[in-house]
Amino acid sequence: MAGSQGTIIITGAGGGLGTAITAHLAAAHPDYHVMLLVRDAAAPSAALQSAVQGKLRSYEFASVDLCRLASVREFAAATAT
């Protein structure tokens, strides 16, 4: 689902820097759809959840292991629409 302004993909969203970037984007650009790439989308950190809940109009978590090319390819194939 694309937001009215487009889609932003944040890799490493579960880390400290990724969470800080996500919080900044949520405050500055709440109308974008944000895809948050983490290692385990079923268990995002409380800090990351707090950065997006009620602040972004549209977001989703995706499990992607950037150290595994197959994982990156699976994500790319699933989102290339």
UniProtKB/TrEMBL annotation:
Instruction: Extract the InterPro entries matched here.
Output: NAD(P)-bd_dom_sf (IPR036291), PKS_KR (IPR013968)
Q: Which segments constitute the Ketoreductase (KR) domain?
A: 6-76
Q: Where does the source fall among the domains of life?
A: Eukaryota
Cleaved signal peptide residues: none
Name of the protein: Ketoreductase (KR) domain-containing protein
Task: Look up and give the organism this protein is from.
Answer: Microdochium bolleyi
Task: Write the lineage as a comma-separated list.
Answer: Eukaryota, Fungi, Dikarya, Ascomycota, Pezizomycotina
